[in-house]
Write a structure and sequence with these properties.
Order of helices and strands: HEHEHEHEHEHEHEHEH
Number of helices: 9
Strand order of the largest sheet: 7-6-5-4-3-2-1-8
Number of domains: 1
Radius of gyration: 17 Å
CATH architecture: Alpha-Beta Barrel
């Protein structure tokens, strides 16, 4: 199917579960520039990439009003290559990365703090109990704005269990927002992928990252 048909089907599903649809990020990391352009032509304006090379290629190829999200793990030594091209970083997952962003960025970078809500060994991110102190430690950082939290839930079929993970991230987001920290409004939630986005939306997701189901 073409991207326009896929997007229409996804939007219909979203409308059935919420009156406040999230921003759909087209995850184009496994597809060609032409396929990404097809997603743009279908009306999508948010694109997610997890490798620096692919990120820079797609950003150069697509029109300037496209918004680019870096959604992969970012090595500290690679920060200087990409950080000033990023509209949103979804993978702020350690202090050394924050320090390097503060050093290399020439403008404020909108960041999601990555949280490993399920405690999976294979996933990056802070444990939930570590997030508050990490964010509070960023209060004097001028180049980082914590716009929200991000998680990758386990790849399981049990949607009830998935919703408990997403609900936990929502509670944590609200606690950080309540701090009133100027550089950490933390109003957003980046959660939900091709297999679990409806559960994520039901628990308050504001950005969903869709690859397979949208662009293949």
């Amino acid at each position: 199917m073409d991207v326009k048909d896929n997007l229409k089907a996804i939007n219909e599903e979203i409308e059935a579960v919420t009156a406040h649809p999230p921003t759909v990020i087209a995850v184009t990391k496994y597809v060609t520039i032409d396929r990404a352009q097809e997603a743009y032509d279908a009306g999508l304006r948010h694109f997610g990439e997890n490798r620096i090379e692919g990120f820079l290629e797609k950003k150069a190829a697509l029109p300037q009003d496209a918004t680019f999200h870096f959604i992969g793990s970012l090595q500290t030594r690679k920060v200087k290559e990409v950080i000033n091209e990023v509209d949103y970083l979804h993978s702020l997952d350690r202090q050394s990365l924050a320090d390097e962003i503060e050093k290399r960025a020439v403008h404020t970078i909108r960041c999601f703090v990555q949280v490993n809500v399920a405690g999976e060994d294979s996933k990056h991110g802070f444990a939930p109990e570590e997030v508050m102190s990490f964010v509070e430690g960023l209060k004097d950082f001028e180049k980082i704005e914590v716009v929200g939290l991000m998680t990758m839930a386990p790849h399981i079929e049990d949607q009830t269990q998935l919703r408990t993970y997403f609900a936990e991230l929502k509670r944590l987001q609200q606690k950080i927002a309540a701090l009133g920290q100027l550089n950490a409004p933390c109003t957003e939630l980046s959660m939900g992928m091709s297999n679990d986005y409806l559960s994520a939306i039901s628990e308050g997701s504001t950005f969903i990252r869709i690859g397979t189901k949208l662009v293949g």
